[in-house]
Amino acid sequence: MSSILVAEDLSAVGGISLSAALPVLTAMDYQVAALPTTLLSTHTSGYGQPAVVDLATWLPQVFKHWTTAQLAFQQGLIGYVGSVERCQLLQDYLVTQKLALLVIDPVMGDLGKLYTGFDDRYVAAMRQLVQLADVILPNVTEACLLASVPYTEALNLPQLLAACQKLLKPGAHVVITDVTQNDQIGCAWLTPDGVQFVGEPRLAGHYNGTGDTLAAVITGLLGRGFSLTRSLELANQWLHIAVAETLSEHRSDGRQGVALGGLLRAILTLG
Ligand code: ADP
Ligand code: MG
After folding, report:
1. 46 CA to middle of ligand 1, Å?
2. Which residues form the Pyridoxamine kinase/Phosphomethylpyrimidine kinase domain (predicted)?
3. For labelling alongside 187, which of 160, 173, 201, 249 has CA 20 to 30 A away?
4. Domain that holds residue 132
């Protein structure tokens, strides 16, 4: 069994981020070290102001203990970190680790804007952190922020991917996660043959936790040795299942993250 470190927010209510990554990666046969970067009473979409605990004083104690206990991880996934200080703490710990795979979802914005509470210093901290990554999973907004490219409707995908690629170590991949092509939503990345795309038909609506779940699935598949292309194909198929299941539930409360039952069954049938 492979041991994976997952660092992102733990929102008690809402079923996203760490709460979604845990079942997904457990179903994929990983031992999961679930490291909250911050604690929230709910996620930040639709519940009002959550009660938040900044874990910046706890994280160094965790890393010290793990070092004493001689814990080692084979894979890592970093999602929402949320402060420059916590980015630096994670970075300092991760440089001491010999991970076979590190995936970073540089969560910091959407629809052309940084999320509230973030600034240029945070973008700079994320640029530092992604230097450690084997794969990064920005959305279009985050890719533009990382690459210092203006966000426009007329997206130059090859240029944006190439600009992000320059921030990473040799051999690492940038995968942009919210690319629309015709009526499909999916992922785009660069190979020597040009821009590649895999996607599935876009279903109606917007759902919480799709990006977090996608990142967990992609990391789990890559860690199990699937190629980047195959991992992205399966991840998009499974997210489509999750969104379709969520739609079929006709939820009266749209705040809860995407349904994970069908996606977990799909993972288990993979064997
Ligand atoms: P987030 O904004 O949470 O980071 P994204 O919008 O990047 O999430 O979506 C992540 C993935 O979830 C997409 O690549 C796609 O596979 C799936 N997805 C998201 N929204 C839809 C939708 N409306 N219909 C079908 N699939 C979707
Ligand atoms: Mg995302």
Report:
1. 18
2. 72-248
3. 249
4. 2-270
